[in-house]
């Protein structure tokens, strides 16, 4: 398993910016609604909803909005009939992109995603075009300043059921099988660790190293424009931009 890629660091930074974006609550609300529809409104018995609630609280979503979103999913309140759709495509320099959408209008979403790929130097592909390059994994990011003894921490993580743990750039990336994600996260939380990020995600098997500044700017422009689309929940990619190039873009 490769280390924590730079595009993931970009995603974390963008996550901090998201708190200032007007559509943050919309994205959080959609996840709450979908999770409740899929597994019921009791977070104690619905791991996906439990994580969605934690993220909503971390994003300072008001309690009444949070509860309404859940009730829309359970059918207690009238809500929108959302669909989850996955798009796949290629960006500049052969980078691969997976775009997860939650929408009430499939045609609108497809048009927006296709247009963004086209305008930003990419190509929308067919189902399965790039998914084979990624693995679905649980990922938990913990800052290294919480860890006093790295060897002891690594043993603790592996005993909790994690598949792998990687230390890089001042943080630990804990990787799990998706089915073990919640139990590992609970074990670490109970042990007193606070996570920076925790989600079931798509991790690339191999990364595309982008060292040309002009291409890096194009790749990031595609990533950020896709992520800003109203219907888009998550964007995954396999690009790896060195820190010295990123610093020139920031």
Features:
250 residues; alpha+beta; Arc Repressor Mutant, subunit A; Alpha-Beta Plaits; 3 domains; four-stranded antiparallel sheet; 9 helices; 10 strands; disordered N terminus
What's the quick description here?
This protein is of the alpha+beta class and 250 residues long. Helix content is 44%, strand content 23%.
How would you summarize the topology of this molecule?
Elements: H1 6-18, H2 24-39, H3 47-58, H4 63-74, E1 83-90, E2 96-103, H5 106-119, E3 123-124, E4 134-143, H6 150-159, E5 164-168, E6 171-176, H7 181-190, E7 197-204, E8 208-209, H8 213-228, E9 232-237, E10 239-240, H9 243-249
Parallel strand pairs: 8-10
Antiparallel strand pairs: 1-2, 1-3, 2-9, 4-6, 4-7, 5-6
Helix pairs in contact: 2-3, 2-4
């Amino acid at each position: 398993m490769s280390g924590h890629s730079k595009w993931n660091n970009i995603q974390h930074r963008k996550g901090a910016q998201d708190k200032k974006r007007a559509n943050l609550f919309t994205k959080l609300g959609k996840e709450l609604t979908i999770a409740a529809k899929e597994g019921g409104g009791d977070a104690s018995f619905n791991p996906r909803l439990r994580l969605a609630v934690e993220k909503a609280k971390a994003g300072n979503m008001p309690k009444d909005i949070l509860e309404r979103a859940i009730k829309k999913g359970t059918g207690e309140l009238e809500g929108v009939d959302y669909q989850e759709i996955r798009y796949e495509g290629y960006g500049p320099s052969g980078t691969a992109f997976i775009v997860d959408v939650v929408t009430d209008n499939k045609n609108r979403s497809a048009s927006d995603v296709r247009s963004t790929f086209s305008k930003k130097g990419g190509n929308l592909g067919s189902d399965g075009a790039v998914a084979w390059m990624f693995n679905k994994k649980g990922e938990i990011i913990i800052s290294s300043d919480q860890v006093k003894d790295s060897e002891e921490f690594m043993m603790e993580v592996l005993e909790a059921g994690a598949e792998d743990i990687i230390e890089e750039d001042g943080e630990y990336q804990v990787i799990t099988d998706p089915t073990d994600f919640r139990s590992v996260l609970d074990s670490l939380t109970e042990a007193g660790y606070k996570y920076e990020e925790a989600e079931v995600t798509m991790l690339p098997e191999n990364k595309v190293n982008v060292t040309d500044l002009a291409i890096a700017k194009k790749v990031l422009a595609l990533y950020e424009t896709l992520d800003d689309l109203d219907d888009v929940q998550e964007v995954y990619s396999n690009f790896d931009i060195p820190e010295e190039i990123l610093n020139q873009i920031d």
